[in-house]
C-alpha cells in the first residue's frame, strides 16, 4: 500500500504535480474521511430534498389558499437567496440563538453543523424539486383524470394511482437535474467546517499550497459522483418509461 | 487573466464558498473567480477536462517577467491586503476605501516607489493564489514567514511586524493554558498558520472557517471551546468591545513569527526595492507611529527592536 502510494507520488512528480500529502497519514486520512463525509452528505440531502420536495409540492397544489400561499412565499424566498447565505444565516445566527436559549435553560445544543447543512440543502433543493413536481402534476392531462374518475376512482386512489405516477414521470428529468446540482452544492459545507472533501482539500492546500493537485482530485471526485447520479437518473427514466411518451 | 480555479468544480454557490466571496461586492477582482460557472449534466468529455487543466497550467506559467519592470512600466503597484475588520485592515464604511495598518503600509510603499497604488482585498484562503496568478504584485496581508511558504514564494527579508497566536475563550472556560486545549475543538481561519501547531503540539481539533469573522461567530455560537487567531486581532475585542466582555485571552503567544511582505518566487529586483523601503520604515520609526495611529494595542516590542537595529545603520 505504502509502496504503491510512493510510486504514485513519484510518478506525479514527473508531471510536475506535488501529491506528497498522500504520504502523510494524517492528511491522507483527512482527505479520505472528507470523501466519506461528502458521500454521507449527498445521500442524506438527496433523501431529505426529495421528502421536502414532495411535501412542498403537495402544499403548493393544496386547495387551502392559506397553505398554498404560505408555501409559495417560502418557495420564492428560498430559491431567490444563495445557499451559502442561507447556511450562514442558519448556522451562524439561528444556531447561535438556539444555543443561547438552551444555555439559559442549562441544556446543550444537540444540532451539529452536519445537520444544518443537510437541513438547509434539503430545503433549498426541495424547493426546486417541488416546482418540478408541481409542473409534473399540472401536466397530467385533464381528460386522463376525468377518464379515471369515470371509472369510479375516488379522490385518494386517483391521486396515488393515476396523478402522482404520471407526474413523477413528467418531472423526472428535472428532478435528476436538480439532484446533480445538489451533489455539487454539498461543497458549501466546507464554509462551516463540516469536514467534507472540499473542506479537507482547503485545509490541506492552505498548509501545503498544492491547490492545483487537490483541484484535480476534487474535479475527478465530483465528476464521478455526478456521473453516477445522472446515470442512475437515466436508468430510472428508462425503467419508468411509458409506451407512447418520448422516443426511446 | 488566469481562470478562476473553481471552474467546473461546483455550482455558483459552491464556487463562492471557495473563492471567499464574503466581500465580493466590494472588489471586482473576486468576480473573476465566480463568473465562470459550468455545470454539465453528465461530464463525460475527457477532452474538455484536459482543456480545463491545460488552461490552469498555462495560467501558472504565464508570468516570467520581472514584476518591478511591470510596476514601473504601468506606473502602478497592485498590493494584496487583508481587510478582515481589525486595526490592521478594514474598509472605511464612509468612503469604501481600505484603511488600517496594512493599507497604510501599501500606501507608503507605492509613494516611495513613486507609483500609484491599487489595492486588492485578499483572504487567508486565497492570498497565495492571487499572488501566484499575478493578480497582485506583492502581498501585505498579515502573512507570517514559515519555511514552507519561503520555499513556495519570495519574501522581503526584513519583517514589518511580528505576531503570534492566542486563544480566545469564554470567561468561565477551564482553559487556562495552551495544554488545556487537548481534545477540544478550536475555531480557526482556513489557511491559518496556527492550524498545524494547535493540532500537532497541543492535540486540539481545528475547525477551519472561511475567515476570522465566521470563526469568531462560530465561537459565540458555542461550536468550539475557543478560537485561535492572531493576538493582534483578539486583543482589541476583549479590550474595547462590549460584546466580548465575557471572553478572555489565553497567552503566551503561539509561534510568534515575523510578518513579511511576499512576492512571487525569484523576483529579486522587486524584493530589493521593497526591502529598501521596509528598512527605511524601521530606521525612521515610521512603523511605530503608524501602529500608534491605527490604535494597535499593546504596541509590539518587535517594532522597537527593529527600530533600534536599523537606526544606527546605513542611511
Describe this structure in words.
The complex is a heterodimer of chains A (248) and B (315). Chain A is an all-alpha fold and 248 residues long. Chain A has a single domain (2-239), classed as MetI-like (MetI-like fold), CATH 1.10.3720.10. Chain A has helices spanning 2-14, 25-60, 65-79, 83-104, 113-139, 142-150, 155-185, 197-208, 211-239. Chain A starts with a helix and ends in a 9-residue tail after the last helix. The model of chain A has no long low-confidence stretch (mean pLDDT 90). Chain B folds into 3 domains: 12-61, no CATH class; 67-160 and 260-311, Periplasmic binding protein-like II (D-Maltodextrin-Binding Protein, domain 2); 162-257, Periplasmic binding protein-like II (D-Maltodextrin-Binding Protein, domain 2, 3-Layer(aba) Sandwich), CATH 3.40.190.10. Chain B is built from 13 helices and 12 strands. Chain B has helices at residues 12-19, 32-35, 46-61, 67-74, 101-112, 127-132, 147-152, 195-200, 212-220, 231-240, 268-284, 286-293, 301-311; strands at 76-82, 90-91, 98-99, 116-122, 138-140, 154-155, 161-170, 185-189, 205-209, 226-230, 247-259, 262-263. In chain B, helix 11 crosses helix 13. The radius of gyration of chain B is 20 Å and the shape is globular. The two termini of chain B are 40 Å apart. In chain B, 46% of the residues are buried. The model of chain B is unreliable at 1-44 and 56-64 (pLDDT under 50). Classes of the chains: A mainly alpha (248), B alpha/beta (315). Chains A and B meet through helix 4, helix 7, helix 8 and helix 9 of A and helix 1, helix 3, helix 7, strand 9 and helix 9 of B.
Amino acid at each position: 500500500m505504502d509502496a504503491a502510494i510512493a510510486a504514485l507520488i513519484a510518478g506525479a512528480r514527473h508531471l510536475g504535480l506535488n501529491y506528497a500529502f498522500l504520504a502523510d497519514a494524517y492528511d491522507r486520512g483527512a482527505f479520505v474521511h472528507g470523501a466519506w463525509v461528502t458521500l454521507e452528505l449527498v445521500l442524506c440531502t438527496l433523501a431529505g430534498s426529495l421528502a421536502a420536495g414532495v411535501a412542498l409540492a403537495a402544499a403548493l397544489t393544496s386547495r387551502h389558499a392559506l397553505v398554498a400561499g404560505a408555501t409559495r412565499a417560502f418557495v420564492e424566498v428560498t430559491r431567490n437567496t444563495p445557499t451559502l447565505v442561507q447556511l450562514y444565516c442558519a448556522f451562524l445566527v439561528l444556531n447561535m440563538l438556539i444555543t443561547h436559549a438552551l444555555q439559559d435553560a442549562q441544556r446543550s445544543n444537540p444540532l451539529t453543523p452536519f445537520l444544518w447543512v443537510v437541513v438547509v440543502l434539503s430545503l433549498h433543493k426541495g424547493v426546486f424539486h417541488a416546482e418540478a413536481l408541481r409542473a409534473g402534476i399540472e401536466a397530467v392531462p385533464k381528460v386522463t383524470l376525468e377518464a379515471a374518475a369515470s371509472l369510479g376512482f375516488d379522490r385518494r386512489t386517483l391521486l396515488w394511482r393515476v396523478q402522482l405516477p404520471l407526474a413523477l414521470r413528467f418531472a423526472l428529468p428535472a428532478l435528476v437535474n436538480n439532484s446533480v446540482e445538489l451533489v455539487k452544492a454539498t461543497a458549501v459545507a466546507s464554509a462551516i467546517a463540516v469536514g467534507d472533501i472540499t473542506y479537507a482539500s482547503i485545509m490541506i492546500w492552505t498548509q501545503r499550497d498544492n491547490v492545483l493537485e487537490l483541484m484535480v482530485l476534487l474535479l475527478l471526485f465530483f465528476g464521478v459522483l455526478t456521473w453516477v447520479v445522472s446515470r442512475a437518473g437515466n436508468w430510472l427514466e428508462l425503467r419508468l418509461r411509458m409506451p407512447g411518451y418520448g422516443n426511446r | 487573466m488566469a481562470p478562476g480555479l473553481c471552474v467546473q468544480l461546483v455550482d455558483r454557490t459552491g464556487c463562492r464558498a471557495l473563492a471567499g466571496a464574503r466581500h465580493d461586492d466590494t472588489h471586482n477582482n473576486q468576480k473573476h473567480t465566480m463568473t465562470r460557472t459550468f455545470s454539465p449534466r453528465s461530464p463525460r468529455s475527457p477532452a474538455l477536462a484536459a482543456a480545463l487543466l491545460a488552461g490552469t497550467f498555462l495560467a501558472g506559467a504565464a508570468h516570467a517577467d520581472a514584476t518591478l519592470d511591470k510596476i514601473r512600466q504601468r506606473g502602478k503597484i497592485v498590493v494584496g491586503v487583508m481587510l478582515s475588520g481589525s486595526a490592521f485592515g478594514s474598509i472605511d464604511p464612509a468612503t469604501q476605501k481600505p484603511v488600517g495598518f496594512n493599507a497604510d503600509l501599501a500606501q507608503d510603499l507605492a509613494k516611495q516607489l513613486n507609483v500609484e497604488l491599487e489595492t486588492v482585498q485578499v483572504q487567508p484562503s486565497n492570498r497565495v493564489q492571487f499572488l501566484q496568478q499575478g493578480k497582485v504584485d506583492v502581498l501585505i496581508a498579515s502573512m507570517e514567514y514559515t519555511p514552507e511558504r519561503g520555499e513556495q514564494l519570495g519574501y522581503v527579508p526584513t519583517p514589518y511586524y511580528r505576531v503570534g497566536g492566542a486563544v480566545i475563550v469564554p470567561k468561565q472556560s477551564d482553559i487556562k493554558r495552551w495544554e488545556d486545549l487537548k481534545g477540544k475543538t478550536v475555531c480557526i481561519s482556513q489557511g491559518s498558520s496556527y492550524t498545524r501547531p494547535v493540532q500537532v503540539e497541543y492535540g486540539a481539533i481545528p475547525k477551519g472557517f472561511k475567515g476570522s469573522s465566521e470563526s469568531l461567530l462560530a465561537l459565540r455560537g458555542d461550536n468550539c471551546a475557543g478560537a485561535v487567531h492572531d493576538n493582534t486581532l483578539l486583543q482589541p475585542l476583549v479590550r474595547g468591545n462590549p460584546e466580548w466582555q465575557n471572553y478572555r485571552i489565553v497567552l503566551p503567544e503561539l509561534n510568534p513569527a515575523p510578518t513579511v511582505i511576499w512576492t512571487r518566487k525569484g523576483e529579486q529586483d522587486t524584493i530589493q526595492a521593497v526591502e529598501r523601503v521596509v528598512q527605511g520604515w524601521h530606521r525612521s520609526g515610521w512603523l511605530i507611529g503608524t501602529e500608534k495611529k491605527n490604535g494597535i494595542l499593546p504596541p509590539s516590542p518587535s517594532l522597537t527592536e527593529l527600530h533600534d537595529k536599523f537606526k544606527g545603520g546605513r542611511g
